[in-house]
Each structure stands twice: as structure tokens, then as C-alpha cells.
Automatic annotation (TrEMBL), chain A:
InterPro entries: AA_ABC_transptr_permease_3TM, ArtM/GltK/GlnP/TcyL/YhdX-like, MetI-like, MetI-like_sf. It comes from the Bacteria. Keywords: Amino-acid transport, Cell membrane, Membrane, Transmembrane, Transmembrane helix, Transport. Pfam families: BPD_transp_1. Belongs to the binding-protein-dependent transport system permease family. HisMQ subfamily. The keyword Cell membrane applies. It is a multi-pass membrane protein. This is Amino acid ABC transporter permease. It is found in: Cell inner membrane; Cell membrane. It comes from Mesorhizobium mediterraneum. Its main location: membrane. GO terms for molecular function: transmembrane transporter activity. The chain crosses the membrane at residues 20-47, 59-80, 191-210. Residues 21-210 form the ABC transmembrane type-1 domain.
From TrEMBL, chain B:
Belongs to the ABC transporter superfamily. It comes from the Bacteria. Signal peptide: none annotated. This is ATP-binding protein. The keyword Cell division does not apply. It comes from Mesorhizobium mediterraneum. The lineage of its organism: Bacteria, Pseudomonadati, Pseudomonadota, Alphaproteobacteria, Hyphomicrobiales.
Amino acid sequence: MGYALNFNLIWRHFDKLWGGLLLSLELAVISIAIGIVIGLVLAVWYVSAGRVVRSIIAAYVEFIRNVPLILLVYLVFYGLPTVVDLAYSAQTSFVATLSLYSGAYLVEVFRSGLEAVPRGQIDAGKAIGLTPWQRLLHVRLPTMLRITLPALSNTFISLFKDTSVASVISVPELTYGAQWINFNTFRIVEVYLVVTAMYLLTGYALLYALRLVERRFRAAH
Amino acid sequence: MSIAPPANPALLDIRDVSKSFGSVEVLRSVSLKVTRGEVVTVIGPSGSGKTTLLRCVNFLESYDSGSIRIDGKEVGFRETGTRQRRSERDLAKMRAETGMVFQSFNLFPHLTAAGNIMLGLRKVRGKSSAEARQIAEHWLGRVGLAHKADSLPAELSGGQQQRVGIARAVAMEPKILLLDEITSALDPELVGEVLEVVRSLAEDGMTMVMVTHEMAFARDASSRIVFMADGGVSAAGPPAEILGADIDNERLRSFLARFRASHF
């Protein structure tokens, strides 16, 4: 074994990793927030719409789910601006991509959640005279959110890991930070060990926090 | 010359209502009148159309022909003679005039006992939050659950949940209360507390149509019993007559005999 581990250079540039981690979290949070809006709107639309709208929504979902994320990132960042007259930063481009990406998965999550709301609750809402919109807002959505919360946390943790794909268009998130340190110090083993640990710890912390939230909601169910 | 209203107008007027699920005819030309303050119990074997009839009254189910009127107003269809379904907004308004209590309680799981009652008061009746809370507390007191106002449904027993279900329905001050086998999902020892609430509502003059298998309760609390079989009204009359030994209706007799054999 000729390779001696030396973490000193990693610690010297740790600000790159720390800043990258924060940016990764930020990208994931913004993307899931937008994704939730996309998912909710399309899911509600889907369950109440006719065949044409359903097919269009289904096509969007199928497209996103069957194309690798990295390809979508390239398409939006390099492809789209050459076709339409748009200028945006790599970061904006990535958030848009990841939002569309998570939105597609969440449409499915929310749609099945809406369909899982017990008929009896909807009947009870009708019986007291709630309009369809009021039933959606006060009966179906609250129950649906409780049903879908575990899937929602899983999606969020997935998205957090998926932010590493942003490194391919030079968004300075955690994986990009690792690459930068690697190029500049050649401590490839050390830097990727540290970054792996950072992804793992953050992922576990998120999982733990979200499970706590879920348990509180379940108690209220 | 003015036309005098009929002396005893029906609050609920079901006329010749028929309904099929595919090729199965679940209601065959059912007619039933219920006057204000009456408690009508619907009995009959399972599959005889009792629950479907009840669900047609507040248009949770549509029907193929006939008419259902509450206080003279057609419930589910526009009164244009073309049998056009009312808009969802109008349906919601019509449904607010009837209250319904369900076999499986159907409380909103994310809302407290008080919250369940307040939802309709606020969103449908337009009451302020404070006013709705006051009404909710009043009705929770009436059903003996004043101390459970802030409990979630999951924290309540079946009997307590059903009493909240009743409070939720009556707090809206409906013209008529529909009770759909409200004790069927309860453990036997919890049935009494729920029926007690229904009895006190009857004493207050609440108009009720009740589907039940509690024969003793039907006998004591109702002004009329309707026996349904195969989607039609097979017999109707005062409890003493319908549950009496000398009724001249073979189906009713065999239903009651089977019922007694399995319940005693």
C-alpha cells in the first residue's frame, strides 16, 4: 500500500464542501416546494378531468419517469436555450429541471393518495352541504396529505441525493465541491470519503426528522 | 280566491322512486311520506334497498325515476320538468337541509370532535369561529361529550364517535335527520348510549328517517315502521301493527321470525 491517507488538504478546503452541502439542501427544498405545487395541481386536475387532460398529464409523468435525470438536466440547460430565446443560470436551470422531475413523481403520489381517501368521508362532507371545492380543501386534501406523508419524505430524501447531478452543469453543490477539491489537491479517496459521510449523515438526519413529523401526524389520525 | 295549503303537508315526499344498479333493481317504485316531527323506521332484510333509499333522500345516490321532495322542493333535479341534475352548488345547498349519520361514523379524522361539528357551521352556515365553537359545545353537551371537544376521532370509542356524528348532523339544524344503521358497527355495550341520544332528539320533535336492526328501539321510538323487501315497501304502519303477531304479511312474518331467531 503506497497510498497514505491525508485529510489535511480536505479540511483546508472544507468551506467548499460545507457551502456545497447547504446549496444541495437549498436546491432540494426549493425543488420539492415547486414540485409539490405541480404535483398537487396536476393530481387534483387529473382526478376530475376528462380523458384528454388525463392523457396529457400521464404523458408528462411517463416522459419524466423514463428519461434519466442527467439527460433532463442537459436538455433544459443546453438544449432549451438554443431552441427558444431564454437565458438563465445553471442553478435556475437545475431547479426548474428538478422541480419538473419531482412534480412528475408527486403527481402519482398525490393521485393515489386522493383516490385512497375513504368514500365515507367524502359522503360526510357532501351530507353537511360542502361544495366540491370545499370538500377538496377541507376533507380530501388533509386526509390525502396524511396518507402521502411517508412517500413525500422519501421523495425529498431522493431529491437531496439527486442534487449531485447539478455538478455536471457546474452548480457548486456538494458533489461539485468534492470535484473541485479533487482537481486541486488530488486527494481523491479522502475527499470522496468525507463527501460520502456528509451525504449519509444529512440523509439520516433528514429521514429521522421527517419520521418524527410523520409520527406526529399519524398520532393525529 | 286563495288556495289553502294542505292540512298536513309532507316534509319528505318520496314518490315512485326506482333505481337500478346495472341489471339489479334496488328500488322499485318506492313511495313514502314523512310529516314533520315523525320518526319513521325502515326495516327489512339486507339488500332490500333501505340504505339506498336513505342515500337517495340527500342525493348521495341518484335515482332513475320518480321524485323526492323535501318541504316541497325537489332534492336532486331541477324543477324544469326535464329531469336535469342540479348543479353541484345547488345540490350542496339542498343537502345542507338534511342531516345524515352513517353506519361507519365517517368523522373527519384530522379534526377534533368540536372541529367536526364546526366545519359545516362555518363553511356552509357562514358562522364565525366563536359562534360555531359555541354551537359545537352545546351539542357535544347534549350528547354527553362536553369533555371531549378537543379530542380527535381516533381518541374516542365507537359510541363516542357516533355521538359526535349525530351532533355534527343536528348542529346544522336540518329539517330532517337520516340515520343509516348507526349502531350496526358498534360493540353491543355501546349501542345504548347512542340510541339514548336518538331518543332524546325524537322527544324534541326532530323529524327522522332511520334504518335500523334494533327492533326494540324501533318499536319504542318510532311513530311508523316501514318494512322493505326486494326494493319495495312491503308493509307500513304503526309499530304495534307491524311488529304485532297477527300481521297479514308472509314476508314480514318470516323476516321477523328469522330476526328473532338470530337475535335472542
